[in-house]
């Protein structure tokens, strides 16, 4: 246990476990990944649920599991198909890392998701939270799975006043959970904490009158539950400005290009995206990079997309382009549907429907 915090002597760990697990068993939501403890299903769901709301994840999880029901199906899939299945869910590195890790499970572990902590930890994309979630939910191992919901619940229950924005605080919460987790049913204990944070112990206006562990909660006793957890403000997001060029050739086909294999939105497709510049210089700069002449014809509606660390402001320009290219490819309007595009580009694509109905729904 960290020297910064000690569990209060009067805190009844056994009673807390009992009340939390009983509530979870009676009140838990029916979610598709809770149908069984299959490690692969648990793994996919936990990766999808990172930074994403449950209601958003459900349809993605269902179609993903229909398409890739086993680790073998996902391992042999083409990355572009995997990204297409993930399209719209965001944070695409999750999908790429999952795909890479599943291949390793097939090659190194005979298709069995490892239940050994050291082995599981080696797989790409599995950090401390996902590690704890898989080990506890799928394998009934008493490992902490500390996310924002869990830190919020435990900071209130035990009145922990450490700044949860600091990495060392997450380690503190992991130590706390190790001390209070149920050894008999760690799966329900961890999921109970997550569920409690999602449904009852919410960031604002927690439903303390409905809380199954209210009698154990020090913040409720002190009356300052809405002051916890303590979280310092993150740095302000920077804004980056771009032009996106929606260009058609003599056949009416659209010019698209694949993004680099690393970095933001890696390996997804896009209409050419260039740092915002003087419109008069665009044709020359475009020709230098793409090897083709363009003639701009007008502006669309600007689009904005907020990532976790940066905001993109994108001005949409329409135009014509020559047929000879050094990079990129031409596709028909119908073929656009076959490529994985990030959300910011889908916002651009919506404007094509206003200009022409050929894209369909």
Automatic annotation (TrEMBL):
CDD domains: ENDO3c, NUDIX_DNA_Glycosylase_C-MutY. Its cofactor is [4Fe-4S] cluster. Gene3D superfamilies: Helix-hairpin-Helix base-excision DNA repair enzymes (C-terminal) (1.10.1670.10), Hypothetical protein, domain 2 (1.10.340.30), Nucleoside Triphosphate Pyrophosphohydrolase (3.90.79.10). It catalyses: Hydrolyzes free adenine bases from 7,8-dihydro-8-oxoguanine:adenine mismatched double-stranded DNA, leaving an apurinic site. Binds 1 [4Fe-4S] cluster. The keyword Iron-sulfur applies. Residues 48-199 form the HhH-GPD domain. Belongs to the Nth/MutY family. Adenine glycosylase active on G-A mispairs. MutY also corrects error-prone DNA synthesis past GO lesions which are due to the oxidatively damaged form of guanine: 7,8-dihydro-8-oxoguanine (8-oxo-dGTP). This is Adenine DNA glycosylase. It comes from Aquisalibacillus elongatus.
């Amino acid at each position: 246990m960290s020297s910064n915090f000690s569990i209060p002597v009067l805190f009844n760990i056994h009673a807390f476990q009992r009340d939390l697990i009983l509530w979870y068993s009676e009140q838990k939501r029916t979610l598709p990944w809770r149908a069984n403890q299959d490690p692969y299903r648990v793994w996919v769901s936990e990766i999808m649920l990172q930074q994403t709301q449950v209601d958003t994840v459900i349809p993605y999880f269902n179609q993903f599991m229909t398409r890739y029901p086993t680790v073998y199906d996902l391992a042999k899939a083409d990355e572009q198909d995997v990204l297409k299945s993930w399209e719209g869910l965001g944070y695409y590195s999750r999908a790429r890392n999952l795909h890479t890790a599943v291949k390793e499970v097939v090659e190194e572990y005979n298709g069995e998701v490892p239940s050994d902590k050291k082995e599981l930890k080696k797989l790409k994309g599995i950090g401390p939270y996902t590690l704890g979630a898989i080990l506890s939910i799928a394998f009934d191992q008493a490992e902490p799975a500390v996310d924002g919901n869990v830190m919020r619940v435990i900071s209130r229950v035990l009145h922990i006043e450490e700044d949860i924005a600091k990495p060392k605080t997450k380690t503190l919460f992991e130590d706390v959970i190790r001390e209070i987790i149920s050894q008999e049913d760690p799966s329900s204990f961890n999921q109970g904490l997550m569920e409690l944070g999602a449904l009852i112990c919410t960031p604002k206006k927690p439903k303390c009158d409905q809380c199954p562990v209210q009698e154990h909660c020090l913040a409720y006793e002190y009356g300052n539950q809405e002051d916890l957890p303590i979280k310092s403000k993150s740095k302000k997001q920077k804004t980056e400005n771009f032009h996106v060029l929606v260009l058609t050739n003599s056949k009416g086909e659209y010019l698209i290009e694949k993004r680099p294999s690393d970095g933001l939105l890696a390996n997804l497709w896009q209409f050419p995206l260039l740092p915002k510049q003087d419109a008069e210089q665009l044709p020359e700069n475009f020709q230098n990079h793409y090897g083709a002449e363009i003639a701009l014809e007008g502006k669309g509606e600007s689009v904005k997309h907020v990532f976790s660390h940066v905001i993109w402001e994108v001005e949409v320009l329409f135009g014509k382009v020559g047929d000879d290219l050094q990079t990129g490819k031409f596709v028909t309007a119908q073929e656009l549907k076959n490529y994985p595009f990030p959300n910011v580009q889908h916002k651009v694509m919506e404007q094509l429907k206003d200009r022409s109905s050929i894209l369909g729904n």
